[in-house]
Write a structure and sequence with these properties.
By secondary structure, the protein is α+β, with helices and mostly antiparallel strands. It has three domains: 160 residues, Glutamine synthetase, N-terminal domain (Ubiquitin-like (UB roll), Roll), CATH 3.10.20.70; 394 residues, Glutamine synthetase/guanido kinase, catalytic domain (Creatine Kinase, Chain A, domain 2, 2-Layer Sandwich); 120 residues, Four Helix Bundle (Hemerythrin (Met), subunit A) (Up-down Bundle), CATH 1.20.120.1560. The chain is built from 22 helices and 21 strands. Strands 10, 11, 12, 13, 14, 15, 16, 17, 20 and 21 form a ten-stranded mixed beta sheet that branches. The longest helix is centred in the last third of the chain and has 51 residues. The protein is globular and about 95 Å long.
């Protein structure tokens, strides 16, 4: 079938498709957590002693003894098999941003040739996948390949239901035989432990005696695109790179702001209902969904949970979303910028810290100027962002996220903190050595009898800030839609632990000098603002004035590309941060730099090869074919203007010339180090890819619609 016929056939298939029938949605009370081995399920399945031990482990991190693990394993097996599971899997989170799983049967044969089911505590606790076949930054080689998975009892096991059967999934950590972390879960657990230890020091110095274990929390707002799978199948760039490498903008995009929060298309609503029903079965608290800004773009946001569980649930959510979308004839695109010229997708990570005794320590209350605990913890965040803003940029550095950071749709690559008018004034007073009563937002009264007045928030929202306070938490808005939330959470927890350690030492000195607690806190926070207040910014983060002032006047760093940001992992201050807190060793940290740098390079190189392939074998032939048609027409009617012919010929020649140059750049391999290789990819390779796109998109505009081979933006984004 000719390429253009494939495109036209895809349009026909979409327009004549048979709608997926709405599945029966049972009440939430019947479905919530029904496929999760949670505490409620354990209480029914375990003995009282075993349940109490597991509850202590889940809620406080207390070590579980092997005998109890055997009891839990037996109950977990019976529960899973009762739901049809014949296999179990340690599910883990390697340095790929996706999950990994190795399935084992419950089956064991005996000497008589019969089969029995078995699942012991030792099988629950430990698994053994290959450690060298996952990204590891030279921590493991093929001749030293042993790796281990180990059960994380603080994240509940669950049943993954698919059309091919049910499997018991056991959230686990993943490490090398030599003990280094090969995954994203171990550093997250360590960072939370470091934060807990540091926070306890501060709270104790502030007079607290009953201090429950502290935990960070996370609620991630997931943005994504849906396009019909027929269109995706006709776009090799979407299949292999997750984004369109070519595509002229449609006449209508998002300029009318009519998609955002608009009525959800019926076909998408059916998908969402089934998707969220599956999430509820898995205990994932999906809270909101809506149309996002760009056509074809949507968002789902779960309620906040403990960071470790939230990170696991976020990975599971992406897996279930893709699978459910496919069943509904969609391809779910999690790439940060699948379509040029319209908004890309992020994953805003809402992060806070608290415990059962002191509550949410980032909740300012009604009088934040009097809430010493809040002021201290918020001040610690300000210090952390100022010192480790480049690290926060590095943990969200990917080839795909580079496409949206810094554009007028996403936060800039310069990390600053937005506090809002009320809190910014409070910290300005602290820096000035005074304390004033903070103002509230007042009452919103529209003067309409049918609209009840309500209390207005004390501060506005700033959608241009990469790290914004939003009432009782911070929202890290620069995280990419395809990323695991673990990396950002590790960075935030670790920088907070470091700042709380610093504050604890300062507080101890001030209190030891005889100062009362309020005066000691004010002294320490005044120093925080004098040293680190440059990170606080409440203006327009998109403006060129801010970009210039941030660097020249405030000393903040602008790291626009991943090639600029990833080397931050090798800086001594970052190495010291992770080693001093025990979150990552120097070797583990360097492995992540090597892995992420390699992923960045490979991502761009794959796209560059696709540009060459599609340019030479799809777009250029389409242009030549149409030129041949035009030439025959012009030969028959000499009076016709040849401007279109000239433009197509010029753009076709320009495309092929650029592709030839791109091929030459791809042959270069003599780089001094990884950093130099990344810069070559970020500048030379990406620059030529962008140039090739200009020629190709110009051809799409001039070549007759019937002769164009690739599905167009207007079709993929607007035909449902």
């Amino acid at each position: 079938m000719p390429a253009n016929d494939i495109r036209l056939s895809a349009i026909t298939e979409v327009l004549t498709r048979t709608p997926v029938e709405t599945t029966e949605i049972r009440p939430l009370s019947e479905t919530w957590g029904c496929d999760v081995f949670n505490l409620a399920t354990m209480e029914e399945a375990l003995s009282k002693n075993a349940f109490k031990a597991m509850k202590r482990t889940v809620q406080t991190g207390e070590t579980l003894d092997p005998a109890t693990a055997d009891v839990v394993a037996a109950a977990m097996k019976d529960w899973a098999m009762g739901k049809g599971a014949k296999f179990f899997s340690h599910v883990f989170y390697p340095l790929t941003n996706i999950t990994a799983e190795k399935h084992d049967g419950f089956i064991v044969t005996n000497a008589d040739g019969n089969a029995i089911t078995e699942f012991t505590g030792s099988l629950l606790i430990k698994g053994e996948p290959d450690g060298s076949s996952f990204p590891n930054g030279s921590l493991r080689m093929t001749n030293a390949a042993r790796g281990y998975t180990a059960w994380d009892p603080t994240s509940p096991a669950y049943i993954m239901q698919t059309q091919n059967g049910a499997t018991l999934m056991i959230p686990s950590v993943f490490m090398s035989w030599t003990g280094e972390a090969l995954d994203k879960k171990i550093p997250l657990l360590r960072s939370n432990a470091a934060m807990d230890t540091a926070a306890r020091k501060v709270l104790a110095l502030m007079g607290e005696t009953d201090i429950a274990p502290l935990n960070s929390s996370c609620g991630a707002e997931q943005e994504y695109f849906l396009i019909d799978s027929h269109f995706a199948a006709a776009r090799p760039d979407l299949l292999l790179a997750g984004r369109t490498l070519f595509g002229a903008p449609p006449a209508k995009g998002q300029e009318f702001d009519d998609h955002y929060f608009g009525a959800i298309p019926a076909r998408v609503q059916v998908f969402m209902q089934e998707f969220e029903d599956r999430l509820y079965r898995l205990g994932i608290p999906a809270k909101t969904h809506h149309n996002e800004v760009a056509p074809g773009q949507f968002e789902i946001a779960p309620y906040f949970e403990a960071a470790n569980v939230a990170a696991d649930h976020q990975q599971l959510l992406m897996t279930v979303m893709k699978a459910t979308a496919a069943e509904h004839g969609f391809m779910c695109l999690l790439h940060e910028k699948p379509f040029a010229g319209i908004n890309g997708s992020g994953k805003h990570v809402n992060w806070s810290v608290g415990n059962a005794t002191q509550g949410n320590l980032l909740d300012p209350g009604t009088s934040p100027e009097e809430n010493l605990q809040f002021l201290v913890f918020c001040g610690a965040v300000i210090r952390g962002v100022h010192l480790y803003g480049p690290l926060l940029r590095a943990v969200i550095a990917t080839a795909s996220n580079d496409h949206r950071l810094g554009a007028n749709e996403a936060p800039p690559a310069i990390l600053s903190v937005y506090l809002g008018d009320q809190l910014e004034a409070v910290y300005a007073d602290i820096e000035a050595g005074k304390v004033s009563a903070s103002s509230d937002g007042g009452i919103m009264d529209l003067g309409l009898s049918q609209i009840l007045p309500f209390t207005r928030d004390p501060g506005d929202r700033n959608r241009t800030s990469p790290f914004a306070f939003t009432g009782n938490r911070f929202e890290f808005r620069a995280v990419g839609s395809s990323q695991s939330v673990s990396g950002p959470l590790v960075a935030m927890n670790t920088m907070l632990a470091d700042s709380l350690d610093w504050i604890a030492a300062k507080l101890e000195t001030e209190l030891g000098a005889g100062k009362e607690l309020p005066e000691a806190v004010a002294t320490v926070l005044q120093e925080v603002m004098e040293l680190h207040g440059n990170a606080v910014f409440g203006g327009d983060g998109y403006s060129s004035e801010w970009h210039e002032a941030a660097v020249k006047e405030r000393g903040l760093r602008n790291l626009p590309t991943s090639a600029d940001a990833l080397p931050v992992f090798t800086e001594q201050a970052v190495i010291d941060l992770f080693t001093s807190t025990g979150v990552l060793s120097a070797v583990e940290l360097n492995s992540r730099y090597e892995v992420y740098a390699e992923q960045y390079i490979n991502s761009v190189l794959v796209e560059a090869k696709l540009v060459m392939d599609l340019g030479k074998t799809v777009i250029y032939p389409a242009a030549l074919g149409y030129l041949a048609e035009l030439s025959a027409t012009y030969a028959a009617v000499p009076a016709l203007d040849t401007g279109v012919v000239d433009a197509i010929a010029a753009n076709a020649n320009g495309l092929m010339s650029t592709i030839t140059e791109l091929g030459a750049e791809l042959e270069k391999h003599d780089f001094a180090d990884t950093a130099e290789h990344m810069q070559h990819v970020a500048t030379s390779i990406r620059g030529l890819m962008d140039q090739a796109r200009v020629y190709a998109d110009a051809l799409e505009v001039d070549v007759a619609d019937k002769a164009w081979p690739l599905p167009k933006y207007r079709e993929m984004l607007f035909i449902r």
